[in-house]
Amino acid sequence: MSTTTENPVSDGATTLTVRSARPDELAAVGELTVAGFSVGPYPPDAARAALLRDAAGRARTADVRVAVEGTGEDLLGTATLAPGGTEHARFAGPDELEFRLLAVSPAARRRGLGALLLEDAVAQARARGFTRVVLDTGARNETAQRLYHRSGFTRLPEREDRLGGGGLRLAVFGRDVDPAPGVLVRLARPGELDAVSRLALDAYAADGDLPDWYAAQVADAATRTREAELWVAVDAVTGELLGTVTLPRPGRTLSATALDGELDLRLLASAVPARGRGVGTALVRHALDVARWRGLHRVVLNSAPRMTAAHSLYTTLGFVRLPERETRVVEGGTLLAFGYDVVPLAGDDTL
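Structure for Ribosomal protein S18 acetylase RimI-like enzyme, as requested:
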């Protein structure tokens, strides 16, 4: 199954186009798929490689998409779009389109091809009348998971009751084609860092004067996205930036407050004009979800004595004080500690 629909997108220097693979390209698509998977966390064995090479088989019931440069012939990336209920769809329902077997040429990485193929999938789903794009990835594929989170996909843990080949635990994601009004939480994108810095500074300044050293930390979104995970809340329909929070990468912590088996969050901020829209609640609940997905049992955080609105949010959501961890004196009193016990998803170590 194929379509001639093309999706040209400029990366600033050249124009990248996503289109259906031509029949004479399918063998090369198969080799590209094997090459892309071979440098990931799950290098294919011989049987898996044979399946990855079978782009011609996939094209019989699905749309094998390729990314090329302009009108050129070199294949830079590929993905397969399978309607729910067809041979190559595993998790998609009847009104959903499944995105599978994303692969980018090792020589073409860091050009945004994965994000481009994802946006093409959403555009194709909309054009064909599907309501959602669904995909899955392995628990150890943190790079792919960060890409999906940046692209506005959210976890669907209720569908994660099926294992992949070899007993591989899978993380399932979905993105609505036309989202309902509300707040969406995703990873920040590179072009948003300055705006995130301004939002956080304005939010903290609205609650009182900031020491210079702390203002510098609040503003340093670039370091947070490089060394940790910088999450943002956006308007699900307009994309307007509404808030931010920082979480550690898997296996790490942000502060001495977090013990083994715990996730700590820092620098929660809601845009001043967006207060009252549930932005802080959405970001904190997302942190609880991340802890569950990673198999952790508690979320912890610190809060300055003067941040009374934040304290109210935490207690409303069910956090409790951890007085045994309140040992640091700061301006205005003792730095408070809060914790929330979660029930982890057994055996999962994903984002």
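The chain has two domains: 7-176, 183-341.
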